[in-house]
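Lab channel / #folding
Pinned by the channel admin:
"Please post every new chain as: sequence first, then the structure tokens as a reply. Keep commentary short and put observations after the output so the thread stays searchable."

First post following the new format, from NK:
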Amino acid sequence: MHGASAGCNPRGFTYIGLLAILVIIGISMGAAGKYWQQVVARDKEEELLFRGDQYRRAIELYYYAIPGRPQYPRTVDDLLQDPRSFAGKRYLRRKYKDPVTGEDFVAVEVMDQTGKHIIGVHSPSDKTPLKQANFPDEYQSFLGKTKYSDWLFVASIQLQQPGVPGRPPLVPIRR
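Reply from TO:
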């Protein structure tokens, strides 16, 4: 009566147990992968806020750099080396890439009688932001935005001084 009357095979139970463990591990790995994607996306979003703010601040510093002659930069390169000064003052450490796309930021430009000027930057990404609330005061306009490209990091100067007397106000041009 060696094996013929035994009704169940212990190897079958081991096989089923092993399959159950593999299914549980697979589900756990899938959940961990989704969680990790969220963590990476939040880190990129936080870096986007930091880098965009660096551009915004650099534009404001450039604007006020020469007393009595406020002026927006014409290009991002002007923030890296101010062509108006002999020393080539820097307002931005380096050109930052958009962390969401890995591409360059898109300039938010305005046009006046002297040509185009940069007043800010934005991401080229059409992805939906994870962050929808609790923005710093200067970025309350980001509330309810459905794309990162709608997050405009614009110098707040235009809000304080909408135009120079005798000149029409600056109107943003988005590319």
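NK: Residues 158-168 have pLDDT under 50 and may be disordered.
TO: also worth noting, The CA atoms of residues 141 and 151 lie 8 Å apart.
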